[in-house]
């Protein structure tokens, strides 16, 4: 162990000339001394060991904790009223969801078509899905959520190989107002599939978040918000006697990243269980995109500033801010637009319902090499 620690310390000694302030660093004699400059080998080992111990603890909690989602399977052959053989390709499939609550967060209805006779070949078949939704209150009153006049004939793509077809999403509810949902699904355009291959069954999957996992998520977000806020206060208290002009570039960036980390943990997360609105999702997307882009901007400035003594805003920061700003705009637009459409229309699916999504995605990954 002593030999391993010595080799570990020698490795850090090689980088000491780039970490510790020396004559080629700007204002090295006036910058506030960072604790990193005076840490010993054992302190480095303890800090890294503590990090991996905490990481391992959280991984263990994730593995030992409850599953993230709950899935309930319903077969079309077991529905009531019974469907005859010809209705298996068209419906209507009248589905009653399991009991849900606001802690279930969201509801997905996913379908899989099973064929009786399948050849060893792949085929694709576009078809249409029509959905109506009714909510059932605690007093067993039925409320129209998505009626016939507002239903959409969404196009889906059926991919099949042999006798099994791939799953496709029928609908997605981003907020759960009612204890149960009655969903009526109709297919259009699968009559030829029934004639050629004979549809054996249609399996529907009701997928929601596990309420136990949701409670753990709320506690973890709350704990990390409190810890991050306490760390921010402690950091500001430690540097209260020094002028901001004398702080090192790392200390200045930490003072920006810590408050953004508080927002990254989403203080408004409980609002998503209280109001049926796209605003909490919009804020969550904005907080996540802002923190991640600020972290990327931090690393760009740090690595470029190692040998750059003059850091004027127009030459040093402005080009980086433009590139990161475009990344932030595309990431924020993608996340917020998807959340808004999913709440407005349960049958919305970004894979087939919009061409702009792929354009933003290509634009986002095109900017990545420039960073």
TrEMBL record:
TM spans (from-to): 44-65, 218-245, 285-305, 317-337
Protein's name according to its UniProt entry: Transmembrane protein 181 like protein
UniProt entry tagged with the keyword Glycoprotein: no
Membrane topology: Multi-pass membrane protein
Subcellular localization: Membrane
Alphabetically ordered keywords of this record: Membrane, Transmembrane, Transmembrane helix
Ranges of residues in domain Wntless-like transmembrane: 210-366
PANTHER family: TRANSMEMBRANE PROTEIN 181
CC terms in the record's Gene Ontology section: membrane
UniProt keyword Transcription regulation, yes or no: no
Molecular functions (GO terms): toxic substance binding
Residue stretches making up the TMEM181 GOLD domain: 91-209
Stored InterPro entries: TMEM181, TMEM181_GOLD, WLS-like_TM
């Amino acid at each position: 162990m002593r030999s391993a620690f010595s080799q570990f310390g020698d490795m850090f000694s090689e980088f000491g000339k780039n970490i510790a302030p020396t004559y080629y660093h700007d204002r090295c004699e006036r910058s506030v001394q960072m604790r990193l400059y005076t840490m010993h080998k054992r302190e480095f080992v303890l800090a890294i060991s503590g990090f991996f111990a905490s990481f391992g603890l959280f991984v263990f909690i994730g593995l030992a904790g409850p599953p993230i989602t709950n899935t309930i399977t319903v077969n079309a052959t077991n529905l009531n009223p019974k469907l005859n053989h010809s209705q298996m390709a068209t419906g209507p499939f009248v589905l009653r969801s399991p009991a849900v609550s606001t802690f279930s967060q969201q509801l997905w209805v996913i379908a899989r078509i099973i064929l009786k006779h399948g050849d060893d070949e792949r085929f694709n078949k576009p078809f249409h899905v029509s959905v109506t939704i009714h909510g059932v209150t605690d007093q067993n009153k039925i409320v129209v959520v998505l009626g016939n006049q507002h239903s959409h004939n969404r196009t889906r793509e059926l991919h099949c190989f042999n006798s099994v077809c791939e799953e496709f999403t029928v609908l997605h509810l981003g907020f759960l107002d009612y204890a149960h949902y009655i969903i009526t699904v109709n297919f259009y355009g699968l009559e030829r599939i029934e004639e050629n291959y004979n549809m054996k069954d249609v399996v529907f999957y009701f997928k929601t978040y596990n309420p136990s996992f949701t409670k753990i998520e709320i506690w973890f977000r709350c704990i990390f918000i409190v810890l991050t806020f306490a760390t921010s206060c402690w950091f500001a208290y430690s540097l209260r006697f020094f002028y901001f002009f004398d702080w090192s570039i790392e200390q200045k960036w930490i003072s920006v990243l810590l408050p953004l980390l508080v927002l990254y943990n989403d203080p408004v997360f409980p609002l998503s269980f209280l109001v049926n609105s796209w605003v909490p999702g919009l804020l969550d997307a904005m907080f996540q995109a802002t923190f991640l882009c600020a972290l990327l901007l931090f690393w760009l400035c740090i690595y470029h500033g190692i040998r750059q003594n003059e850091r004027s805003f127009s030459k040093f920061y402005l080009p980086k801010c433009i590139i990161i700003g475009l990344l932030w705009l595309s990431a924020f637009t993608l996340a917020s637009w998807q959340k808004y459409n999913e709440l407005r229309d349960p049958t919305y699916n970004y894979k087939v319902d919009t061409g702009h999504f792929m354009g933003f995605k290509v634009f986002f990954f095109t900017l990545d090499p420039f960073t």
